[in-house]
Amino acid sequence: MVEINENSVLVIIDVQKAWLDPSLGQRNNHNAELVISKLIDRFREKGRAIIHVRHGSLNPDSIFREGKTTFEFKDEVKPIHGEIVITKHVNSAFIGTDLESRLRNMGDPSVYYVGLVTDHCVSTTVRMSGNLGFKSYVIEDACATFDRKAPNGRVIPAEEVHNINLASLDQEFAEVIESKDLI
């Protein structure tokens, strides 16, 4: 069990409407947004910090381009007044943003990561978080990804991609937990 204490922050990565695009293929953990919504409620009830991160592509044709409706946060995870919103342009929420300085100014908190997608922006951000010395957690049932195609053309199922990435993060860059492990 892990306690949400006064020095805890929830970082929500890229839970945007763009992920609803059917061309992205098969996804695992369709309950991730519901779990994230419940975590947001718990952190808000305890008066803990929440940071919302979104991807803003610089490619004018991208579904993650600012100004498009697909750039917007999904309804179930929208920030409220006073919560921090960071827009990133690469996979890591630490590169080209003030995320590190914000976390340092919070007193080097325990950071709980959730979002989309496990193997790209969540993993990249968590790896940097661990390398920067933050006590980092990944809440596995509050993350999801999509099927991936290997270089040989084999399709790797989303659940397998998700689990392999979490296994690579666990105990090396972060502690991987489930939402039920938070008290």
Give the topology.
Blueprint: E1 8-13, H1 32-45, E2 49-55, E3 84-88, H2 99-105, E4 110-116, H3 118-131, E5 135-144, E6 148-149, E7 155-156, H4 158-169, E8 175-177
Parallel strand pairs: 1-2, 1-4, 2-3, 4-5, 5-8
Antiparallel strand pairs: 6-7
Question: Could you describe the 3D structure shown?
Answer:
This protein has 183 residues and is an alpha/beta fold. The protein has a single domain (8-181), classed as Isochorismatase-like (Rossmann fold, 3-Layer(aba) Sandwich), CATH 3.40.50.850. Helices cover 26% and strands 23% of the residues. It contains four helices and eight strands. The chain has helices at residues 32-45, 99-105, 118-131, 158-169; strands spanning 8-13, 49-55, 84-88, 110-116, 135-144, 148-149, 155-156, 175-177. A six-stranded parallel β-sheet has the order 3-2-1-4-5-8, sandwiched between helices. It has a two-stranded antiparallel ribbon with strand order 6-7. The longest helix is centred in the first third of the chain and has 14 residues, at 32-45. The radius of gyration is 15 Å and the shape is globular. The mean pLDDT is 97.
Keywords for this entry:
8 strands; 183 residues; Rossmann fold; two-stranded antiparallel sheet; alpha/beta; 4 helices
Number of domains: 1
Main sheet characteristics: 6 strands, parallel
Mean pLDDT: 97
CA-to-CA gap between the ends? 7 Å
CATH topology value? Rossmann fold
